[in-house]
Amino acid sequence: MSLDTPRTATRSERLTAHEARQRLEHERASRLTQLQAVDEAGPDTGEQLMSAQKDTIRRVLAEVDAAFARVQDGTYGSCRGCSRAIPVERLEILPYTSFCVPCQRDAG
Length: 108
What we know:
Order of helices and strands: HHHH
Number of domains: 1
CATH topology: Four Helix Bundle (Hemerythrin (Met), subunit A)
Structural class: mainly alpha
CATH class: Mainly Alpha
Helix content: 55-70%
Number of helices: 4
CATH superfamily: DksA, coiled-coil domain
């Protein structure tokens, strides 16, 4: 099924809160490792490139933190644009996303 195909997810098609937290913890750990690697890259790496990488990593970390809040308040997995369930396949790829693919296209 395409990630573009809207559908109403049944309970078995949704990530559980535990699964969501596990994916988000993994995502957070990966981004923190990336941030540490950029910090340790040294002065030979272009300062502008390192700054852009840090900004991107920090933005994703903020999105991960926001996703944790959505897990906590019960809105995780619901699209902020159309309020429908975000397909589990999309959440497996981007566990911190807050939009389904069509709404993400409209927002971007």
